[in-house]
């Protein structure tokens, strides 16, 4: 297979799996990643699209493979486009599913753990994900574009639907 030119964006899915018991704060089933990208950070499950696969099919497949959870369908929430001057360039289709609070399964990608929504800001997670969770729980669609520097530090993130800058690094201004 012919290699893609450096800088071409890879297509992937992020699958936000949530559970909310009556009278309790929502919880997210997150993966503490063993390898790059985002090694040692808590992220939603997900991964690259297979050839000829739709984003929804990939989200359902990745949820089963990584979390051991079968979902018949998922709700599309938005996109996260990530651009950097390095090999880190992605187009992520973001989906959400309400699931039962199952015991986290063994995953070869890392450790799965239930994290309450209020805890999310206190654990190591990509900055982009904080905004994804916020928009999902506000029931807002989004089309984020995240610019990174050559060290993969988030410099700026914009919602392309509204042109709102949702994040700007104080260091890189």
Give a topology summary:
Blueprint: E1 10-19, E2 27-33, E3 42-43, E4 45-48, H1 55-67, E5 75-83, E6 90-98, E7 110-116, H2 127-137, E8 142-148, E9 154-159, E10 164-168
Parallel strand pairs: 1-6, 5-8
Antiparallel strand pairs: 1-2, 1-4, 2-3, 2-7, 5-6, 8-9, 9-10
Strand content: 35-45%
Query: How many separate helices?
Result: 2
Query: Helix and strand string, N-terminal first?
Result: EEEEHEEEHEEE
- Molecular shape: globular
Main sheet attributes: strand count, strand direction, barrel closure = 10 strands, mixed
Protein architecture, described:
14% of the residues lie in helices and 38% in strands. It has 173 residues and is mainly beta. The chain has a single domain (10-168), classed as Nucleoside Triphosphate Pyrophosphohydrolase (Alpha-Beta Complex), CATH 3.90.79. Strands 1, 2, 3, 4, 5, 6, 7, 8, 9 and 10 form a ten-stranded mixed β-sheet that branches. β2 (27-33) and β3 form a beta hairpin. It is globular. The N and C termini lie far apart (41 Å).
Supply database-style keywords.
mainly beta; Nucleoside Triphosphate Pyrophosphohydrolase; 173 residues; 38% strand; single chain; 2 helices; 10 strands; ten-stranded mixed β-sheet
Short description:
The chain is mainly beta and 173 residues long. The chain is 14% helix and 38% strand. Strands 1, 2, 3, 4, 5, 6, 7, 8, 9 and 10 form a ten-stranded mixed β-sheet that branches.
């Amino acid at each position: 297979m012919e290699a893609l030119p450096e800088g071409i964006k890879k297509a992937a899915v992020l699958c936000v799996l949530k559970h909310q018991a009556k009278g309790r704060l929502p919880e997210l089933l997150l993966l503490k990643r063993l390898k790059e990208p985002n090694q040692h950070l808590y992220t939603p499950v997900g991964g690259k699209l297979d050839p000829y696969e739709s984003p929804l099919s990939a989200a359902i497949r990745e949820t089963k493979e990584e979390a051991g959870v079968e979902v018949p369908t998922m709700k599309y929430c938005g996109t996260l486009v990530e651009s950097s001057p390095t090999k880190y360039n992605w187009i992520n289709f973001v989906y959400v599913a309400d699931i039962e609070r199952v015991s986290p399964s063994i995953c070869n990608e890392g450790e799965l753990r239930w994290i309450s929504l209020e805890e999310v800001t206190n654990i190591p997670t990509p900055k982009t994900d904080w905004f994804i969770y916020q928009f999902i729980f506000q029931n807002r669609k989004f089309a984020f574009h995240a610019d990174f520097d050559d060290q993969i530090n988030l410099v700026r993130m914009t919602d392309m639907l509204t042109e709102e800058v949702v994040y700007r690094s104080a260091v890189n201004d």
